[in-house]
C-alpha cells in the first residue's frame, strides 16, 4: 500500500497568474491589450496575474479566445493550485495532539501494511490520514465503537486498536459476502469446526469461504504493537459483520477457541451493541466463553473425562476423536482448567503461517 501524499513547499506553489504573465510575454501582449481582448477590466487582469484573484471558468473561456490556449488548461491550472494551496494549509492545521497520535500508531500501521511512513512528523500525519481515511487523527476515538475497551491493559493503546480494526475492515471490503443468515451460520458450525483438521496453510482460506457464504467477512491479521488482540467481531462501515482474528500466541487451541468465541458474539447479536456498559460487556464475554468451550468439547463428556484423571497421550487422543477435535484442543482445555501443567505445552500445535 503506497502512500504518495507529501508536504507541499510554499516555494513550489505557483499561482496560475504567473503562467498567464509568461504567455503575455511570449505573445508580446500587454495587460491592457489582454483586458480589451477578453472584455475584462484591466484591474481584473492585474489581480489575476499578481495572484490576488482566481481564474474563473468565465475568464478561462475568454483567455481561450484571446490567446488560443484551451479553457480547460487554465481551469486545470487553477484546480491544481487550489488543491496544493489547501494541502499546504493542512500542514498548518496539524496539531501536536495529532502528531502524538501518529507516533502512537506508526509502528502498528507499518507492521500491518508493510509500508514505511515518512520520518517527517507532519508528512506522517498526512499519510496516516489518507491510509485510515480520516481527516483528523484526533477523531479516531469518536469512530471507535468496537467492544474491547474493557479489555485494555497497561501499554495498550485505543488508537492502535482502532488502527488494527480499521485495516482489517479495509481488507474485508473486497470479500464477496452472501446475505447474512443466522440459520445458515448455525448449520455450518460443525463444518467450521471440522476445518481444524485441514492443512494449517489452508485454514484461513477455507474459513473465509464458509463464513463469506454465511454473510460474514473474515480475516486473519498479525497482531500489532500496543494492540495484543486475539479476536474481534464488529459491524463494518457498510453494515456488514466482520470477524477478525490473529494468531498472536500461535497456539492452535487458542485460535479455535477465539474463533468460536467470536462466532458466539455473532449468534447472540452482541456485535450490534455499541459501547455497552462494563457489566453488559462482561456478560457477553462470559457467555461467548461458555459457548466456545462447550461447542468444541461437550461439557458432560469433559466432566466424565477429567474424573477419570487419565491424561495420557492415548487417552487424550481418544477423547479428542470422540469430540471431533484435534488433540491440541483437549490439551489446551486441560491446561487452562489446571488439570495439566503448562510446562507440557509441547503437546499443543502451533500455527506459524502468519509472520
Overview of this structure, please?
By secondary structure, this protein is mostly helical. The protein folds into three domains: about 10-90, Orthogonal Bundle (434 Repressor (Amino-terminal Domain)), CATH 1.10.260; about 95-145, no CATH class; about 175-355, no CATH class. It is built from 17 helices and three strands. Strands 1-3-2 form a three-stranded mixed sheet, with helices on both faces. A hairpin with a 5-residue loop joins strand 2 (about 230-235) and strand 3 (about 240-245). Helix 2 packs across helix 3 (about 40-50) and helix 6 (about 95-115) packs across helix 7. The radius of gyration is 30 Å and the shape is elongated.
Order of helices and strands: HHHHHHHHHHHHEEEHHHHH
| Average of pLDDT | 89
Number of helices: 17
What is Rg? Answer: 30 Å
- Biggest β-sheet, characterized? 3 strands, mixed
Tell me the distance between the termini. Answer: 18 Å
What's the helical proportion of residues?
Answer: 55-70%
Brief digest:
The protein is mainly alpha-helical.
Descriptive tags:
17 helices; 3 domains; mainly alpha; three-stranded mixed beta sheet; 434 Repressor (Amino-terminal Domain); 355 residues
Write the layout of secondary structure elements.
Elements: H1 16-26, H2 31-38, H3 42-49, H4 57-67, H5 71-92, H6 96-113, H7 121-132, H8 140-143, H9 158-172, H10 182-187, H11 189-194, H12 203-213, E1 216-220, E2 231-235, E3 241-245, H13 252-267, H14 278-296, H15 299-308, H16 313-323, H17 327-336
Parallel strand pairs: 1-3
Antiparallel strand pairs: 2-3
Helix pairs in contact: 2-3, 4-5, 6-7, 6-9, 13-14, 13-17, 16-17
Amino acid at each position: 500500500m503506497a502512500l504518495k501524499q507529501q508536504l507541499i513547499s510554499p516555494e513550489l506553489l505557483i499561482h496560475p497568474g504567473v503562467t498567464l504573465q509568461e504567455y503575455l510575454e511570449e505573445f508580446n501582449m500587454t495587460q491592457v491589450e489582454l483586458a480589451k481582448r477578453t472584455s475584462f477590466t484591466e484591474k481584473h487582469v492585474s489581480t489575476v496575474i499578481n495572484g490576488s484573484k482566481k481564474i474563473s471558468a468565465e475568464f478561462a473561456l475568454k483567455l481561450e479566445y484571446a490567446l488560443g490556449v484551451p479553457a480547460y488548461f487554465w481551469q486545470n491550472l487553477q484546480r491544481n493550485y487550489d488543491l496544493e494551496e489547501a494541502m499546504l494549509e493542512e500542514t498548518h492545521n496539524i496539531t501536536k495532539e495529532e502528531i502524538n497520535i501518529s507516533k502512537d500508531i506508526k509502528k502498528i500501521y507499518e507492521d500491518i501494511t508493510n509500508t514505511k511512513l515518512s520520518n517527517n512528523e507532519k508528512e506522517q500525519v498526512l499519510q496516516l490520514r489518507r491510509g485510515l481515511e480520516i481527516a483528523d487523527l484526533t477523531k479516531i476515538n469518536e469512530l471507535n465503537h468496537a467492544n474491547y475497551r474493557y479489555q485494555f491493559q497497561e501499554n495498550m493503546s485505543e488508537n492502535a486498536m482502532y488502527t488494527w480494526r480499521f485495516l482489517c475492515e479495509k481488507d474485508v471490503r473486497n470479500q464477496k459476502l452472501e446475505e447474512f443468515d443466522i440459520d445458515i451460520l448455525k448449520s455450518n458450525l460443525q463444518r467450521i469446526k471440522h476445518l481444524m483438521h485441514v492443512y494449517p496453510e489452508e485454514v484461513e482460506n477455507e474459513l473465509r469461504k464458509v463464513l463469506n457464504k454465511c454473510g460474514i467477512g473474515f480475516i486473519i491479521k498479525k497482531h500489532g504493537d500496543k494492540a495484543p488482540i486475539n479476536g474481534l467481531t464488529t459491524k463494518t462501515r457498510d453494515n456488514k459483520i466482520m470477524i477478525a482474528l490473529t494468531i498472536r500466541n500461535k497456539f492452535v487451541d487458542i485460535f479455535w477457541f477465539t474463533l468460536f468465541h467470536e462466532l458466539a458474539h455473532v449468534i447472540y447479536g452482541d456485535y450490534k451493541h455499541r459501547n455497552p456498559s462494563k457489566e453488559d460487556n462482561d456478560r457477553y464475554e462470559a457467555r461467548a466463553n461458555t459457548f466456545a468451550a462447550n461447542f468444541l468439547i461437550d461439557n458432560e463428556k469433559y466432566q466424565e473425562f477429567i474424573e477419570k484423571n487419565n491424561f495420557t497421550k492415548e487417552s487424550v487422543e481418544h477423547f479428542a476423536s470422540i469430540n471431533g477435535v484435534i488433540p491440541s484442543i483437549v490439551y489446551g482445555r486441560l491446561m487452562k482448567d489446571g488439570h495439566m501443567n503448562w510446562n507440557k505445552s509441547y503437546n499443543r500445535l502451533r500455527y506459524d503461517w502468519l509472520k
